[in-house]
Design brief:
Elements (H helix, E strand, L loop, with lengths): L4 E7 L4 E7 L2 H5 L7 E6 L12 H12 L2 E6 L15 H14 L2 H4 L14 E6 L1 H15 L6 E5 L16 E5 L7 H8 L6 E4 L10 H13 L7
Parallel strand pairs: 3-4, 3-5, 5-6, 6-7, 7-8
Antiparallel strand pairs: 1-2, 2-4
Helix pairs in contact: 2-7, 3-5
Amino acid sequence: MNRRTQVISIPGLVGSIQIAVDIPEAVIRTSNFMVRGLALIAHPHPLMGGTMDNKVAQTVARTFNQLGYVAVRPNFRGVGESAGVHDAGNGEIDDLYLLTQWMRQAVSWQPLGLEIGQIEQLPLALAGFSFGSFVCSHLLKRLVQEGQAVERLVMIGSAAGKWEMAPVPASTILIHGELDETIPLQAVFEWARPQELVVQVVPGADHFFHRRLHCIRNIILGEWLGQAAWTQ
């Protein structure tokens, strides 16, 4: 944790939801900085050690901060100080839906000392790692069905072939490790092929992207900025 990350709990459907809020450095340095958007980031499977402090989730949050987004990383039910028990994705989808509504209200940010202008109109991005990608795919489907806009979805270590994923838009950023031992790359190809989704493969990367976290950052930055954004 650093000075740009605040951890709080908010009321949920079965009790409190613990969240980490990652704030762009520019917001701290410049009082009139215009936040570009909001990003909700879902961690891997809670019964397999997944938490909001997962390194991939943290990397994605920092990347969105670089893009000028305020990022929110919740702990799923039964993880950390979040109430409830694991609900195989059903309750988790409901919780993230509630969070998207919370994030779009200016009053939500006041206890954090954040004044985010025109927050209801800011773009909302979703990102999920492994089990989190499964949850985010269904969250996106629900939001779209209700006419709520989502700017873009990022899926890392996609849960294709492991859980029943919802279809996702062609604009989805789909990142997978070449040597993923948990969710084989071939399973992702088979899921992506009928949807004509582009899969960005990181050579030599395993499921948790050990020593390849910078590749996740660079891919997202490049896709968002529409240009090469590779850095060391």
